[in-house]
Amino acid sequence: MGGKKPQPAADMKLPDDKPEAVQILHRDLSTSNQIGMLLSVSNSMAQFLTALTARDPDSSIPGDNKDLTPDWEEGYVAAENTLIAACERIDSIIADDKRWGLEFQTRLEKLFEKNTEIARSVAEKQKALLDETTAKEKAVREAAEASLAPHLHFRPVLFAMGDGTWVAYLGDPSDLSSGILGNGNSPAGALKSFDAAFNGALNEDQMRLVEQIKNEHEKLDSGRTDTIEETGDGKENSQGDGGDSGSKQ
User: Fold this and answer.
1) How far is CA 31 from the centre of its chain?
2) Taking a C-beta distance cutoff of 8 angstroms, is the pair 166, 183 a contact?
3) Which residues of the chain have pLDDT under 50?
4) How would you label 192-231 residue by residue, b for 16+ Cβ within 10 Å and e otherwise?
5) What pLDDT does residue 208 have?
6) I need a labelling partner for 121 at 20 to 30 A (CA). Which of 138, 153, 167, 182 fits?
């Protein structure tokens, strides 16, 4: 069915999609707009009055011009009153000291400085928090990397040399070609050098040594697991036997 679309009631408010931000003009800009508007009105009225007066060069009053109708005479008076009102408005704006003082500007500058200081403080706190988080992440990453260091898993022999340096060595001392060696001015330096050598290019003998040690560790871990399981079964059995003996008594 056709027809007009239903209109909302007078007291019914339609929901707004989004509230618009209120923008407040600076006082100087508002004054400039007001003066510009008043000057535009004044110029229009002045041009209108000039046009009416120019119809009779010998007369400055439209009423003395016999060519003007009463409607034009009323228009002249109305334009003249509008021009006077506009000029009075301009005079009142110019005479208003509050519009031209620096107190408002000074308050704005102080407020801006305060907000800037608050923003700077917030930025510094955010940076400190970010630096702290970054330092924690770095420490966690370094700890994770350190836990994967080869010297922790393969435990090379660490000994001091006669010249004050230290050596970390993994393998058979009688066959240096198949071993992995690191040296430094301190135990930590020797272990760091060992890790670098371990993570570098290894020859076939060194690769064979690494695989051999890995297999030994796996067997050792497997034996420990079997021992723990057997120990647990033994405890359960002994508890069970104890319960049976107690019931027999």
Assistant:
1) 39
2) yes
3) 1-3, 6, 8-15, 19, 22, 57, 60, 62-65, 234-249
4) bbbbebbeeeeeeebeebbeeeeeeeeeeeeeeeeeeeee
5) 85
6) 138
